[in-house]
Amino acid sequence: MIRALIIEFLLSGVIGAIVFRLAWAASKRNLLAWGVVLVIAAVSVIFISGSIDGWHVHEYGAGFLGMSVPHPLVVQLLRSLGLIGGAWLASIVVARRKKRGFEEDRRFRDFP
């Protein structure tokens, strides 16, 4: 069961990083990118079910069939924390890229 929850957390972290990076690339604003990530996290909590079938845990997660499946709110909390954690890592990467000068607009750089 722990293996399935870790995979769920890491995949949502990757999705959070991708969403933040795409939102930042489209708007070049940190606040707007964070807003998009928080909206996606809220939508995932509201519309995506948090229940995990025990058979899937046994078949793919190498767990026991009698092992207790966590409450759906725990799974949804892990998903939303993964999304926010991935976005946080992506924001650190964007800040470092800005500091080094990789994120500037080069279209008008050759103009005096």
Question: Would you mind describing this structure in some detail?
Answer:
With 112 residues, the protein is mostly helical. It has four helices and no strands. The chain has helices at residues 2-27, 30-47, 54-60, 72-100. Helix 1 (2-27) packs antiparallel against helix 2 (30-47), helix 1 packs across helix 4 (72-100) and helix 2 (30-47) runs antiparallel to helix 4. The radius of gyration is 18 Å and the shape is elongated. The termini are far apart.
Roughly how many Å apart are the termini? 60 Å
Q: Give, in order, the helices and strands.
A: HHHH
Task: Specify the helix fraction band.
Answer: over 70%
Number of helices: 4
Name the poorly predicted regions: none
**Average pLDDT rating:** 84
Estimated structural class: mainly alpha
List the main descriptive attributes of the protein structure presented here.
112 residues
Write the layout of secondary structure elements.
Elements: H1 2-27, H2 30-47, H3 54-60, H4 72-100
Helix pairs in contact: 1-2, 1-4, 2-4
